[in-house]
Amino acid sequence: MDNMHSIGPQKGCSKRILTLDNDIQQIPQLASFVDAVAEDAGIDFSEAMPLNLALEEAVVNVMQYAYPAGTHGTVTIEALFNKEQLKFIISDSGTPFDPTTKEDVDVSLEVGDREVGGLGIHLIRQIMDDISYEYKGGKNVLTLHKKIN
């Protein structure tokens, strides 16, 4: 197993956790959370912006699709980081869904010729170095890794 996947408390890293309701009005809290993680990890603003975009895409998808309409749920974002890497673990108790099984979007096609959806996971794949999914303990767990330059 490479070092990227082994990041954890034993590796001398820091940790932050944020739990949000499935309400997109709470997204500004996510942006503040990611900014604080980036600052603590020594990442400058230009590198933090794409991270914010990737996390927002993943979390908004959970908020909009993981729980049946009108149902309350939460999404938890755990950030583990050190000076070399970041690991964001996004978990929810909603409907099981593995976004990593979505095929890559053919961005060479005209917008009208593309299938609806899939751009979010495409964007996340472009920004992050690795993404993985598992369903465990009744929870969707999406893990996003990013090496820090």
CATH architectural group: 2-Layer Sandwich
What spatial form do the alpha-carbon principal axes imply? globular
> Fraction of residues in helices?
25-40%
Low-pLDDT windows of residues: 1-5
How many DSSP H or I helices? 3
CATH topology: Heat Shock Protein 90
CATH class call: Alpha Beta
Beta-strand content bin: 25-35%
Report the radius of gyration as a whole number of Å.
15 Å
Task: Characterize the main sheet.
Answer: 5 strands, antiparallel
Distance between the termini: 21 Å
Number of strands: 5
Helix/strand-derived category reads alpha+beta
List the helices and strands and how they pair.
Layout: E1 14-21, H1 27-41, H2 45-65, E2 74-81, E3 85-92, H3 119-127, E4 130-136, E5 139-147
Describe the structure.
The structure is a single chain. The chain is α+β, with helices and mostly antiparallel strands. It has one domain: 2-Layer Sandwich (Heat Shock Protein 90). The protein is 30% helix and 27% strand. It contains three helices and five strands. It has helices at residues 27-41, 45-65, 119-127; strands at residues 14-21, 74-81, 85-92, 130-136, 139-147. Strands 1-2-3-5-4 form a five-stranded antiparallel β-sheet, with helices on one face. Helix 1 packs antiparallel against helix 2 (45-65) and helix 2 (45-65) runs antiparallel to helix 3. The chain is globular, with a radius of gyration of 15 Å. Mean pLDDT is 86; it is low at 1-5.
